[in-house]
Amino acid sequence: MINKLIKGIGVVSIFLSSLITPLAWGICVADLQKQVEVIVQSPRLRSARVGVFASKLDTLNQPIVNIDSNKYFTPASNVKLFTTATALEILGASYQIKTSLLIDQTGENLWIKAGGDPSFNEDSLKSLVQALVQSLKARGIKAIASNIKALPELKGSGLGKGWQWEDLQEYYAAIAHSFIFDENVLDWTITPTKINQPVKFSWNRPDLARDWIIENQAITVNSSLTNSLKVERSLAQKRILITGQLPLNSEPELGATAIPDPEAHFLQLLRREIIKQGISFKPEVLNISNSSIPAIKVATFLSPTLTELIKVTNKQSHNLYAEALLRRVGVSFDIANPSGQKDSSDLGIEAITKFLAIKGISEVVMQDGSGLSTLNLATPRAIAQLLTLMANNPVFRNSLATANQDGTLKNRFKTQNINMQGKTGTLTSVSALSGYIQPPKYPEIAFSIIINNSNLSSSELTKEIDEIALLLNASEECN
Hints:
The chain has helices spanning 29-40, 79-91, 122-138, 262-276, 306-315, 319-336, 344-358, 380-389, 394-399, 458-473; strands spanning 2-7, 11-15, 27-28, 49-56, 65-67, 98-103, 110-114, 143-144, 149-152, 185-191, 200-203, 213-216, 219-221, 230-233, 239-243, 245-247, 253-258, 280-281, 296-302, 364-365, 377-378, 401-402, 420-427, 430-437, 445-452, 475-476.
């Protein structure tokens, strides 16, 4: 399907991105705006809102494409760019999140202080408890009080403002709590069985889901029928409802459900690991005052550095990582500006807003750190401003997905020669792509493309955005 004719050194036909092969051609920068407008004004996008901004890194005030770039759009996961950039500037690339175990002077009462390490998993827990056991055994302690006191560093619900209630059960909306274990989700698999028989549901780790209730109302149907399988978690409950039908020849359905009570889940697993490593709990329950602060830190587990954490955040567009980093920024900001019991997320947003204002970036309204909220607003120009600001930061640059190589851009631009680092964004009726493009015959470009209010599918929106990106990649100066 021929998309349009482009004037450059010659005249070339550009096809949809899925059909393009690398060609030696270019588009005069003076003609670039018009070529992008052809796509933006096409029948497929006529009823949508489209914003595009692109400029050389050193000439932000002289954009080569500027379409509604000063208008607010819902940026989806492009919000992660603001979160990770601010975290790098405020916390530093070598910053690590601590999870610590503490005991009192008797050596019997145990506290755990957690700071929301999004990478914390079973290996982390084993390592932390191993250090605890070594310390207790060195003190001759073989049993401790049965109640473990939790000391969460983060304040607030762990959810973002404007999150849809339907999303709260999903893995991508897991609670960004002080206590995180295996990303605060439980993985499951559903497979077909026999026609007219219930499907088979299984937890990948049944030992972590012993107290969950499964209501399986879904059935296996003939292979010619459609897949209407639906998995729902009751709000704030450990109950899974499975409905619909799964065709007999279907591949296993893989999914994950967010847990509703991260702290209780974490403490349960901590107790289990302590017992497994040879320390028992006394049957009596001792009273531990909330004001009693333990003095002895006996074990600490450190997360990977912020450099590694933001790689996961941006390359994989990981919501939980972004929300955890937002709250860590908030904790740091709270130390400098004590505010009592204010939500760590609110503090993080306040810190990011102030950081951006100092850098002259004002057209951003954040309600969460990940972009899952539909209440977030940003202009394409503001995103390009941030990209320009961070262009010489190698840690930030390396955290972005690379076209046709890794992250959320691994399977895009498969047949095109494009040198791009970027951040994708996807919500219902929303698609975005912002980042850096190094055209073969033009200086490096910072760009932001956002589409809102479209009835096209995500894959169709991706094609439209990729067409615009490929036009930017063809930029060159003409005499």
